[in-house]
Amino acid sequence: MARAKYRIDLTLKERKQLEKITNQHKAEQSMVRRAKIILMADEGIKHLAIATALGISQENVISTWLKRWLERADWPIAERLKDEPRSGAPDKFTPEQLCQIIALACEEPAAYGRPITHWSHRELAEEVIKQGIVESISVSHVGKLLKKTDIQPHRTRYWLNAKADERKDERITDICEAYRKASKVENEVFISVDELTGAQALERIAPDLPMSPGKPQAREFEYKRHGTQTLIAGINVATGKVQGICGDTRTEEDFVGFIEHMIDSNPGHEVYHFVSDQLNTHKSESLVRFVADYCEIDKELGIKGKEGVLKSMDTREEFLAETGKGIVFHYTPKHASWMNQIEIWFGMLTKKVIKRGNFLSKEDLKNKILAFVDYFNETMAKPYKWTYQGKVLTA
Fold it and tell me: Between β-strands 327-331 and 242-247, what pairing exists: parallel, antiparallel or unpaired?
């Protein structure tokens, strides 16, 4: 019997890696087919049988890949299955011209008298010719150049030019210490508070279609708007239980009312600690006056905008964060509200209730939110394991 021209003898490691490629759902089909060619050849299957089994019309394809497999014996497995690099036609533009085209794509169209916010391929091609960079260039060629260099004039993303919080480290240390003490200090309670605003009461105009094998639940695209609700909520850091008030607004009076509600519904503590972000309603005149009254602080508070404790946001924060009284606020650094544990719970509420919810009215939305609060407290509530201590987060 004639010996096969390209004899394949796979090691156990090679076979396992090739089988892994054939089982990957997201692998390129060409890579999967080539891996199967090698595996079948290793089993002694003839070229014609391999071609028939894999639906390959030409047997020389089998020989080509067996030959490359053997020639690339020192290459990584995945590289041994890849195509040879294609030479293609040389680019008709010089490197200098290509650099000028890409540089132009990165500039504002307005600088060239075009009252638009970003380049289209057609407009960029026109401007390249107008500027004398090249004599001619097609719209499709411009698109290929941008794709090759990963320049995307049609896309945008948001970024935040955040001003540094001079007290960032101090605030982080304070909050981490509060979370650490929450379950250890007697007669004191630590509550993380914030508002979830703009929860929309959307009613789908047709019922959902139930899921079936291979098909997810189908939702009607169109909906009716019934308004929004704001949830002001707090999570007990030591127990993980949540309390909340749902309504139409989130004024400073609403926030003060919520703080009063939290104290009344959690009686018997000597000190109430509240972790909050730096929203202006969380440092309001109304809140300062409530805290001073509750703590029986008998001193002149001054005048908002002019003097005393009430003078500014900074002076009001200093008073509210001062220890040694019955209510103490702990403020997250600017642009770091993720340190507020209630934000984690808001994400859960949004995912489980609001995002896919169907609400007949604002009252219906309100009732379902508050029902989830009760459900959460009964079935899921537990304290978060807070490990962050102000150090650089690493992957």
Answer: unpaired
